[in-house]
Amino acid sequence: MALECKYLCSFNSWFSASKASDKYAGYMAKDDLERALVEATANENWNVSNTLLLTISDATYQMPNIDRISSYFMLKLNSTGGEWRRILKTLNAIDFLLKNGSPAMLNRI
């Protein structure tokens, strides 16, 4: 019985630790756009929602956001090879912005 509890307790601590690593390391975004960018380029095992990509593409219609978005994407494209999901998600987001973002974003990319 004690062995069973020890196994179950160690599994619970492992499970809670793995759930904690699923979050973005306690990152506190400054605003909604930055939170959307972090979530869209996370190195997680799922795709980015179209709603999130539309939020980012709507933000491209404001000039100060274009520089923020393009510099953030360039930073993520320079990630290491082990973070290939992050690079793939960034390329998908850039593709989405080329199709649905502002015309000024085309010149910036």
Brief characterization of the structure:
The protein starts with a helix and ends with a helix. It has helices at 2-22, 32-40, 50-59, 63-77, 84-100, 103-108.
Give a structural overview.
- The chain has 109 residues and is mostly helical.
- It has one domain: Serine Threonine Protein Phosphatase 5, Tetratricopeptide repeat (Alpha Horseshoe), CATH 1.25.40.
- The protein has 6 helices and no strands.
- Helix 2 packs across helix 3 (50-59) and helix 3 (50-59) packs across helix 5.
- The longest helix is centred in the N-terminal third of the chain and has 21 residues, at 2-22.
- It is globular and about 30 Å long.
- Residues 1-23 have low confidence and may be disordered.
Provide the number of structural domains. 1
Poorly predicted sequence stretches spanning 5 or more consecutive residues: 1-23
Round the Cα radius of gyration to an integer and report it: 18 Å
CATH class: Mainly Alpha
The SS-based structural class is mainly alpha
How large is the share of residues in beta strands? Answer: under 5%
The major sheet is characterized as: none
Distance between the termini: 62 Å
Examine the secondary-structure arrangement and name the CATH architecture. Answer: Alpha Horseshoe
Proportion of helical residues:
over 70%
> How many E-type strands?
0
What is the helix/strand order?
Answer: HHHHHH
Oligomer: single chain
What average pLDDT do the residues reach?
Answer: 77
> Any idea of the CATH topology?
Serine Threonine Protein Phosphatase 5, Tetratricopeptide repeat
Q: What general outline do the C-alpha atoms trace?
A: globular
Task: Quickly count the helices.
Answer: 6
